[in-house]
Design goal:
By secondary structure, this protein is mainly alpha-helical. It is 56% helix and 1% strand.
């Protein structure tokens, strides 16, 4: 087919139509040579007239065809809105170029839209603009699209339950909308949700990526404040804010900002990063607790997910490594080198140096390797020089000494490295000429840290005189000691206590005398002590118990004080127990913190006083009364569902351990000491392994042996638990966060059974059977005498663990030898039948269906229709439990014609528990119809017949 005969396309037709329309346009009145006018309607200014004449001269020299072609070419190259704008200027009757900059003429205002129509409703929305027009050039026309952003935004009246979080310039979370606020009053933005105030995290990140410096500075400032406030909003956000920030890669944006040449951007980036690394909530509590119980231990922040091989870490990208472990990710970005460049080459202030010290502290807290890396850098040495020679900033000096304490507390290797730098000579300058108490306290705690490693022994001769000076000065100040006096005295006594423990005999008799004076002064008060007073009383008693001396007069005062106030103190412990508190830790896994606990360092916290008192009475045994409030408090601990301990609860554990030792020394009644030992079993963390060994020994050597009349003395069971206790001999002042997990879990009673069941060789050995017998006796005793301890493990989980007994022993027949104990335990569980629930997940059991199937198969194989075994198997077949379990025993296992129980068990769990309400599952009812084929008419026969009879009557 030829091209001439081809039909034109739709596109070609449209183009031809457009060309014809343009060719048919008349040049009048638009292009008429006489219609150009004497002045330009577009241009203004002194040169407008000359330009217009030049344009008219050029246009008049062109032919009509040239004018038309030029017009078409110009129109096709211009935006439609621009053409409409030029036409509006052409059609505007007002004279341009003559403006009265002072006088306002509202009659000349016109509202312009794309259709050149005046809309009154639009005019109303922009009516406030009348006062703004005609005050400048070309302000005689209001263009709606360009000025619409100045008007009020559309506000949604209904607040949503779930919405994107927005933050103000102060870093605080803002409500969905701010009532009775206009755009001018609030924080306005041009992104999504214009009716809402504030900025989202993504919008702040977009500012950080801009080239415009003020926007970047604004974003860094808001992010810095936002990090500071992050923990305040964890309860209202769907994910903890700091976790969201870390997962979104915020650190890399801050790190990029540090490479900027703008000093303001670098300063704000340092502030944000300093807030991120500072863990300010931890620092506040740790500083307050330093010296309590004469202990200055600091935590090491372990990141469990990052404890992998170096080769695996090297495969991770920078982003992935930061999300996995912030410290290791930061080091990969050469953060320390960049900070070093900033300190040495940029003109930054002391506040920036403080932020850099915060960052180094966060890195050093990660562990020994990281702390040693920090102390060897030129940056640390440069800061050391600035702090101790050039600068006079107490805040920076305090923070830097805290950094050195963090480094030294990681290991003796780090402490020796600091001593090589003659750090003690430098801090003695602050100690001898104190200017600020917090700085002085940090110096004393750093000094004590070296003592804990048995280092700096050459300074021992200076200790007594120094401490005497502080204590003597404080005692003579006034009748009412200030918190500053109290904290200084506590730190001084903590230092002397460390010297006594680590260096033996020191002549400090005057310190003992002053300590007795202080105690007499503080214990004479009728009011319960506040935190600082409690801390000082505890340290006084600790010092007096450090040496093998007897202080009879102090013992009498201590007992008198306890008998008077112990009940009230236990009420405070009940309300403020750190072991049972609402402990929350929403920190990112890549950068963990100690978490949040309701700890008031300004209110009444008598715990530290009690620790010192019990430590003293343990060395100076004296009888005192245990009030009923203590046993109420202890019962609360026994019922505590807490699975994992935390940093702060260790003080409460220490108090209970010293109390247990004190009661043992004064030969308190054996039942009470046994109860305390039971409570402690599932609380003691790994680093207190020696204390668990003592508690375990007391547990098995006390009331238990006399109360349960079995042939065994439970030595095998005791040996089993001793194998679980790690042999930890820690010499460093720090305690690993991971070591705070309890050695024994809440279900420690059932561990022997689980161990036997999971180990084939152990399962079939005589040793395994002997251990199983003692473990069951232990469980029965605890279920009978201390049910509150057992109830920390759900009833279904306890059932599963005890039922494992039927699958242990040689050929699985051990249960015949312990049938009596198993039967008594079954009766305990039957009495709690209402709490039995197999539908919820059971810890340690992946699938109860599979576990129950194995148990039933074992029953068919080895039970010989044993009634006790049958009673255990029958419990999950009650109507309240899953129908799938009943289908299992009727379809896959020959259980119905073998399982049997006696009247003893039916009295506890009546038959109607299995027959009421009537079965409605048609598949199971069909299985019931085969009941007449059963050779033995045992319990399952009666259950099936009952359901079939009820169905037939309906």
């Amino acid at each position: 087919m030829s091209t001439n005969s081809r039909k034109p396309s739709l596109f070609a037709l449209k183009m031809q139509k457009r060309i014809n329309q343009q060719n048919n346009l008349s040049l009048e009145p638009e292009l008429c040579k006489t219609s150009f006018g004497d002045t330009s309607v577009i241009l203004s200014g002194p040169e407008a007239s000359d330009i217009h004449k030049e344009n008219v001269q050029k246009l008049t020299s062109m032919s009509d065809e040239e004018l038309l072609n030029a017009k078409n070419e110009l129109i096709n190259s211009m935006d439609g809105k621009l053409i409409e704008f030029l036409k509006s200027k052409r059609n505007n009757d007002s004279k341009c170029g003559k403006y009265d900059l002072k006088q306002k003429d509202s009659n000349r205002i016109k509202l312009f839209d794309t259709q050149n129509k005046i809309k009154e409703d639009k005019m109303k929305q922009l009516s406030y603009m009348k006062d703004l027009v005609n005050n400048g050039l070309n302000m005689d026309v209001i263009e709606e699209e360009k000025l619409g952003w100045t008007g009020d935004v559309n506000v949604e009246n209904e607040n949503k339950d779930v919405y994107t979080a927005r933050f103000g310039l102060d870093g605080k979370l803002l409500p969905y909308i701010i009532e009775n606020k206009t755009t001018v009053d609030g924080l306005h933005h041009h992104g999504e949700e214009q009716h809402r105030p504030g900025y989202t995290i993504d919008e702040l990140y977009s500012f950080l990526r801009k080239n415009h410096a003020p926007q970047r500075i604004l974003a860094l400032d808001v992010l810095s404040k936002l990090i500071n406030n992050a923990s305040s909003y964890d309860t209202v956000l769907d994910q903890p804010l700091l976790c969201s920030l870390m997962d979104s890669g915020m650190f890399l944006l801050l790190r990029i900002a540090l490479d900027d040449t703008n000093i303001a951007i670098v300063t704000n980036a340092l502030k944000a990063m300093g807030n991120l690394f500072s863990r300010k909530s931890d620092r506040t509590i740790l500083t307050g607790l330093s010296g309590c119980n004469c202990n200055i231990a600091l935590p090491v922040y372990i990141v469990q997910d990052a404890e992998i091989s170096q080769s695996e870490l090297e495969k991770s990208s920078d982003f992935d490594l930061v999300v996995l472990d912030l410290v290791q990710g930061a080091l990969r970005t050469d953060l320390i080198l960049r900070l070093q460049y900033i300190v040495i080459n940029l003109n930054i202030g002391s506040s920036c140096l403080l932020d850099i010290t915060e960052i180094l502290t966060g890195i050093a807290s990660r562990g020994e390797k990281f702390a040693f890396l920090v102390v060897e850098t030129n940056l640390f040495k440069h800061l050391y020089s600035l702090v101790f020679t050039n600068l006079q900033s107490d805040d920076l000096s305090e923070m830097f000494i805290f950094l050195t304490r963090v480094i030294s507390s990681q290991s003796v290797k780090c402490a020796l490295k600091l001593l090589e730098m003659k750090i003690l000579d430098s801090i003695f300058k602050y100690i001898n000429n104190p200017t600020k108490t917090p700085l002085l306290l940090e110096c004393l705690y750093l000094w004590q840290t070296f003592f804990e490693y048995k280092l700096a022994g050459q300074t021992i001769t200076e200790v007594a005189n120094l401490v005497l000076k502080f204590v003597d000065r404080s005692v003579g100040l006034s009748a009412d000691l200030t918190n500053t006096d109290l904290s200084l005295m506590s730190a001084s006594l903590s230092l002397i206590d460390s010297a006594l423990r680590n260096f033996g005999q020191i002549y400090i008799d005057p310190v003992y005398q002053l300590t007795e004076i202080i105690l007499a002064k503080l214990l004479s008060s009728s009011d319960l002590p506040n935190f600082e007073t409690s801390k000082l009383i505890g340290n006084c008693f600790s010092v007096l118990s450090s040496k093998n001396l007897k202080f009879n007069s102090v013992s009498l005062k201590a007992v008198e004080y306890l008998n008077k106030h112990f009940g009230k103190i236990c009420e405070i412990l009940y309300d403020k127990s750190w072991l049972t508190s609402n402990y929350v830790n929403n920190s990112p896994k890549c950068y963990p913190s100690l978490g949040y606990i309701n700890l008031s360092l300004n209110g009444g916290e008598p715990l530290f006083m009690l620790i010192g008192l019990m430590k003293f009475l343990c060395s100076n045994p004296s009888h005192f009364n245990i009030p009923k409030q203590f046993w109420i408090y202890l019962n609360k601990l026994m019922k505590s569902p807490i699975e994992v301990s935390h940093w702060y609860c260790r003080y409460e554990i220490i108090f209970l351990i010293y109390l247990l030792k004190t009661l043992k020394n004064v030969q308190f009644d054996i039942d009470s000491t046994h109860k305390i030992a039971i409570t402690l079993m599932s609380f003691i963390p790994k680093y207190m392994a020696e204390e668990l060994y003592y508690t375990l020994t007391l547990y098995f050597n006390s009331y238990f042996r006399e109360s349960i009349k079995y042939e065994s003395n439970f030595e095998i069971l005791k040996s089993f638990y001793e194998l679980l206790i790690p042999n930890i001999k820690s010499t460093c002042a720090s305690v690993l966060i991971t070591e705070l997990n309890p050695i024994l879990p809440k279900d420690w009673l059932f561990l022997p059974i689980l161990k036997i069941h999971e180990t084939d060789n152990f399962k079939s050995s005589k040793e395994g059977e002997a251990l199983l017998k003692e473990a069951l006796a232990n469980i029965l005793f605890m279920e009978t005498n201390h049910p509150e301890v057992c109830e920390q493990t759900p009833l279904a989980a306890r059932y599963c663990r005890v039922a494992c007994t039927f699958m242990c022993g040689r050929r699985g027949t051990i249960f015949h030898e312990v049938k009596s104990v198993l039967n008594q335990i079954w009766h305990v569980y039957a009495a709690q039948n209402n709490n039995l629930n197999f539908k919820d997940p059971i810890q340690g059991v992946e699938s109860f269906y599979d576990f129950y199937k194995t148990l039933c198969e074992h029953y068919v194989s080895v039970s010989y229709s044993d009634t006790v075994f049958g009673a255990y198997v029958l419990l999950p077949l009650q109507r309240k439990h899953s129908v799938e379990l009943r289908k299992l025993v009727w379809s896959e296992i020959e259980l119905p014609q073998t399982i049997n129980i006696d009247e003893e068990h039916l009295d506890r769990i009546p038959l109607h528990n299995y027959t009421q309400p009537v079965e409605t599952n048609t598949e199971l009812l069909k299985m019931y119809t085969r009941v007449n084929s059963l050779r033995r008419k045992f319990i399952m026969y009666h259950i099936a017949i009952s359901h079939l009879n009820q169905i037939s009557r309906l």
